[in-house]
């Protein structure tokens, strides 16, 4: 009897350990693990710590660095590109700037490799402390073109892979970025459009080549190939694609466009996939950009990796996770207190802003201050306005949920004639919904402004009697509502606009809606505005 019981118990344990990712008794997690515009994720592990980076295009500082112990809870600890000397973003928009990065850890050192558009120059930066400043860029001079570089380290050697028509690989000197040896061609995957986002992993005597195909839209998917030789030929997994929502089963799932993945092994030897996808609203359109998702991977010895059982994933993931290490909840209200950081003056982080706030292109730091008036964000205007493909006085954070309310309290005591300031749901220079204050002939007016391509429309200006105003943008997933209040209690709706005119499907580009604070002026002035706080509720 004892031995029967023993075998029942043993077989139960074997089943549950083989299928440890798929049992129902586990805590689960929610996708996306990084909501809002967190595109092109790449992940690496150093000891018990995971680090993740994303592309940032025209935004500065570039390439946020996130840290996690469990792959589910991520905290931004820094940025790879904090100094203008590292990257020139002048004149970039959501189709340009910093494209897909890869992060890798080798021999105590972290590397982040990426491409800057429109010059299409590949470069990498390195650090021994991912939460600190990263090196000046090391340029890859022999491979100019296209995008999606990655690094593969083996036995003290470093290989650079990138997409340029097909997937190419070449050994480099990691100290200098110089070419060592010939360029080898690894093919174009399985014939889907835009084979890209390559990464190499070695496991059980095979080199595995992970590739995204289908373009970053609805047809996006992930394939995997393998070879006994790093330079190929690579044979495809018969079960490709290993990740895709471009199928009938997932046609009504809110998550679409799954692709651009990276794999990582946890200290307990479980495998995980990080990838991008986006949450659509009606009409298969999305406004929040491409977001970072997580899937468990079952990867048997000598076999192919299987992502979440059938290559699909859910917002509500019912699987076992690593032991969860939850973070403090992000504050709903940003009070704009200065955070002192031990960084050089030319680092954006010296401004002392909370992580996650970004400017456009290479900002002039003197226009942003948390120290000129304690507890306030002071914004100095410029004649470069929000519709310029340049660096207006604009600072923003990501929209992370379809239903949200963002409110900011402005002190307009120093708003000068010809100045405007406000809050905006910003998708691109010619696609943003604003609520703003402006001074005309000594009177402050509050109004909504909607920019839709070549059309600009303003609604319902009202005269403000004091110098304080609460400006608000809220969304119920179908519409954005632009609102204002002179007492912080009663809000007037000034305009309502469809969300889909800010969607990627309408305007193109690779980013998502940012919620920003801005100021601008028709001619040079010494006026400024102080923002007391910014609140984001969802
Ligand atoms: C990126 C490519 C992609 O370079 O979109 O989804 C491009 N994947 O890999 C821009 O993010």
General description of the model:
The protein has 538 residues and is mainly beta. It folds into 2 domains: 39-317, Glycosyl hydrolase domain, family 43 (Tachylectin-2, Chain A, 5 Propeller), CATH 2.115.10.20; 333-537, Jelly Rolls (Sandwich), CATH 2.60.120.200. Helices cover 4% and strands 47% of the residues. The protein contains 2 helices and 40 strands. Strands 26, 28, 29, 31, 36, 37, 38 and 40 form an 8-stranded antiparallel beta sheet that branches. A hairpin with a 6-residue loop joins strand 37 and strand 38. It is globular and about 75 Å long. The N and C termini lie far apart (57 Å). The model is unreliable at 1-25 (pLDDT under 50). Residues 39-40, 55, 99-100, 147-148, 196-197, 212, 216, 259-260, 276, 510 line the site of (Z)-L-Arabinonhydroximo-1,4-lactone. (Z)-L-Arabinonhydroximo-1,4-lactone binds at residues 39-40, 55, 99-100, 147-148, 196-197, 212, 216, 259-260, 276, 510.
């Amino acid at each position: 009897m004892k031995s029967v019981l023993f075998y029942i118990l043993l077989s139960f344990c074997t089943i549950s350990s083989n299928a440890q990712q798929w049992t129902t008794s586990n805590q689960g997690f929610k996708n996306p693990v990084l909501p809002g515009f967190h595109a092109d994720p790449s992940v690496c592990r150093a000891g018990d710590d995971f680090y993740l980076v994303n592309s940032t295009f025209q935004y500065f500082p570039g390439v946020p660095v996130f840290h996690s112990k469990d792959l589910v809870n991520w905290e931004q600890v820094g940025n790879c590109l904090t100094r203008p000397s590292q990257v020139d973003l002048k004149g970039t928009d959501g189709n340009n700037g910093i494209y897909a990065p890869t992060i890798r850890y080798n021999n105590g050192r972290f590397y982040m490799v990426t491409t800057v558009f429109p010059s299409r120059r590949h470069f990498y930066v390195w650090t021994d402390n991912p939460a600190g400043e990263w090196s000046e860029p090391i340029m890859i001079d022999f491979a100019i073109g296209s995008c999606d570089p990655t690094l593969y380290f083996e036995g003290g050697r470093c290989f650079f892979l990138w997409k340029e028509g097909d997937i190419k690989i070449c050994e480099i000197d990691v100290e200098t970025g110089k070419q060592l040896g010939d360029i080898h061609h690894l093919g174009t995957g399985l014939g889907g459009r835009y084979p890209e986002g390559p990464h190499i992993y070695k496991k059980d005597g095979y080199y595995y080549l992970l590739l995204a195909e289908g373009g970053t839209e609805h047809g996006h998917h992930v394939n995997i190939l393998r070879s006994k030789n790093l330079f190929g030929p690579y044979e495809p997994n018969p079960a490709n694609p290993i990740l895709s929502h471009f199928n009938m089963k997932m046609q009504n799932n809110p998550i679409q466009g799954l692709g651009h993945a990276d794999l990582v092994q946890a200290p307990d030897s479980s495998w995980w996939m990080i990838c991008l996808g986006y949450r659509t609203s009606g009409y298969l359109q999305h406004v929040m950009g491409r977001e970072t998702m997580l899937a468990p991977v079952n990867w048997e010895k000598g076999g192919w990796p299987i992502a979440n059982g059938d290559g699909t994933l859910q917002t509500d993931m019912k699987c076992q996770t690593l032991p969860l290490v939850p973070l403090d909840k992000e504050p709903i209200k940003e009070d704009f207190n200065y955070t002192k950081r031990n960084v050089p003056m030319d680092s954006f982080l010296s401004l002392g802003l909370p992580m996650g706030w970004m400017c456009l292109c290479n900002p002039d730091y003197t226009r942003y201050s948390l120290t000129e008036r304690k507890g306030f964000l002071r914004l100095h205007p410029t004649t470069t306005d929000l519709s310029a493909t340049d660096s207006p006085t604009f600072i923003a954070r990501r929209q992370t949920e379809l239903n949200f309310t963002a409110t900011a309290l402005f002190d307009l005591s120093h708003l000068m004639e010809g100045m405007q300031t406000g809050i905006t749901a910003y998708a691109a220079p010619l696609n943003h919904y604003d609520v703003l204050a402006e001074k005309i002939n000594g009177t402050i007016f509050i109004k909504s402004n909607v920019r839709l391509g070549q059309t600009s429309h303003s609604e319902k200006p009202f005269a403000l009697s004091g110098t304080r105003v609460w400006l608000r943008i809220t969304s119920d997933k179908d519409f954005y509502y632009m609102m204002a209040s002179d007492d912080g209690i009663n809000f007037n709706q000034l305009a309502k606009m469809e969300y889909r005119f800010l969607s990627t499907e309408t305007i193109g580009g690779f980013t998502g809606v940012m919620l920003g604070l801005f100021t601008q002026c028709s001619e040079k002035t010494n006026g400024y505005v102080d923002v007391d706080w910014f609140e984001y509720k969802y």
